[in-house]
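Shipment paperwork, digital attachment
Item: protein structure file
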Amino acid sequence: MLPFDKVEAPPPAAAVRRKLDSFVIPWAWAVGVISYLDRTNLAFASVSLARDLGFDCKTYGIASGAFFVGYGIFQLPSVSMFHRLGIPWLVGTIVVWGLVALTFAAVRSRVGFIVLRVLLGAVESGTYPTILAYLSRFYDANAVGTAYSMAASSTALASVLGSPVAASILLMDGVGGFRGWQWLFMVEGAVSVTFGAYAFAFMPREMGDVLSDAEVRSCDQEAVKGLTTIGRRENAAAVMRQVLGSWRPHYLGCVFALVLLSMYGCVFFIPLLIHSFLAGSDTATSTTPTSGTGAASCDGGEGAEGATNVAAVLLSAIPFGAAAIAMILIGKSSERMGERRLHGSVSVLFGAACMGGLALATALHAPAVVNILLLSLSAAGIWGVHAPLVSYPYAFLPKDQASVAFAVTNSWGALGG
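Attachment content:
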């Protein structure tokens, strides 16, 4: 090399990381938000939908859980298809689940309601394992947990964003002859279809879409290679056998099922619980019919006022906001310290303790502000376990198997729904 030859210095790792965070995380986060809005808008529509269609709490609970039948069964096939087809598979499922969400506006029977929930679960099943696989194309094994926690904060922030949006849409009750809950399904379903088309055109597919050649060379080569090898049929079958034959993903799945049991209890019932706190009654949990129609108090009662329903939806943003903040902070702390087990266990134990405190406070008829505070702290602990738990497969499996292992873990986790 001649003295006057110019040598290009490698870009600072921190600058490359910031660039990836700026261009990749927002896409993954947006996919999660769209997914969660469509799967959880039932929670915001619950009070008025149950009243209009005469659904009792049993029907509402079965329909909420029916989502996880399709969700648990189709996760492995869905993430395998992503490895083969890439972004087109992901955005295709976004469009389809948007169309399914639109169909909820036309539901009239209990059976149709439950069937649509199963179908929505099947279409959305691979969303979060696919997000993890997508991020693994850009981040190394140490950083992917934090990247995922930032993207998966959508599970809480979707509810923060969804609360005022849903409240606004519900106020359209009667416009065009449609009820507010019908408008909610139609608008959010249409947003999913539109976003899917936009993502197909602009979502980054590989590092070269985001970074310069010099920046790509400076990255971890395992991340540069991504997960493309699993896309070949013979490799996909081998990876499936290896992952399914390991006990660790199944063990993590049992743990995750217990976490998701609490998490989805929050997702689907926080608006109803807050409505109950505000009303000073047991309307969120009672299964005793409140009228001659046989409709249970999941409908908010015959005399429930729209203002109280909207206030409950808006206040739902508080616990979900606390969950999102905890998720990101715990994920960053876990990555910085290189520790997963203690972060995850302390987080989930804290959430459980606060949930127990909420049960006691409710029994003692504590003020609504106390109940909402305890509910928020419970959500923070429950959501905070995500980053340590989701990144754990990268500690004991090769990178091309870790996202598949998470699909197995998440499939077991669906039992929590």
